[in-house]
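Q: My labmate handed me this sequence with no annotations at all. I'd like to see what the chain might look like in three dimensions before we decide whether it's worth expressing. Could you predict it?
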Amino acid sequence: MPELPEVEALRDLLAEHLTGHEIVRVLPVAISVLKTYAPPPTAVEGREVTAVHRYGKFLGLRTDGGPYLVTHLARAGWLHWKDRLPSGPPRPGRGPLALRVALETGAGFDLTEAGTQKRLAVYIVADPAEIPGIARLGPDPLAEDFDERRLADLLSGERRRIKGALRDQGLIAGVGNAYSDEILHAARMSPYKPAGSLTPEETTRLYEALRTTLTEAVERSRGVAAGRLKSEKKSGLRVHGRTGEPCPVCADTIREVSFSDSSLQYCPTCQTGGRPLADRRLSRLLK
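A: Here is what I predict for the chain of 287 residues:
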C-alpha cells in the first residue's frame, strides 16, 4: 500500500504536470471506483487544476471554481502518468484500469488496481472534509507543528500496542504497515509495547525515528518516476518485507509475525531484547 512518502511523491508529480492545465475528460472504467455520485465526474471537466494536496494517504486535485477530485489508492492501486494518453476509449472490464483523467494537452494519468479486492476510491466533492476517511484523519507527522509534545499527548492513555497505534489514521495520518515497522526498528522499540506506557526517553526516540524515517523516505522518493516508486520504497526498507535476512544494524535474523491480512517484521536484538515475539497464527498451525 502506498504510504505517506510515496503519496507525497505522487503529489509532487501531479502538481508539476497538472497545475495550470485543464481537465477535459474523466473516464471511470471500473464501476466500483466512484464513491460519490453528486456532483458527477463531469463537474471537473473543463476546469483548470489549481493545486494538488495530500491528506494522509489521500490525493486531492483542486479545480478552479469547481469541486475536488480526490483519490485513495488503497492496497493495490497505483497512478500512472502518461505524456500521451491512448487515443481510443478504454474498454470496461479489460485489465486493471479503473479511471482515466485526460488534459487538454493530450497527457494525463490512469488509476489502476490489481487483484480482486476493489478498494481504490475516487470522490468528487466540494470539500475534501466531506470524505469520512479524510474527516477522521489525525495530524500529519511531517507538519511543522507536529512536535514531541503532540506525539506524547496522542499516545497518552493508549491501551493498544504501539504498532497498531502508529497505523491508526485517526491518530496519525499517513503511516501504514511498512513504515511503522521501519519507525519502530529505528526507535529500537518492540511493536508489542503498549503505546501508553512510553517513558519520556522512549517518546523522544520514537518521535525522532518517526520524523527521520518519513523525511528520508520522502527525499528518496522525490523526483522518482511514478513507475519506479514501488521499487524505490522497497529498496529503502531495512526490516519490513525482509524476513530471514540479516538486520542491517546488528546482523541478527529479521523475524516476522503474521496476521490474517498482514504481517510485521522486526529485529529481536534491536527491538525485543533478543526474545522472539509470539506468532499466534504459527502457533495454531503447530497444534
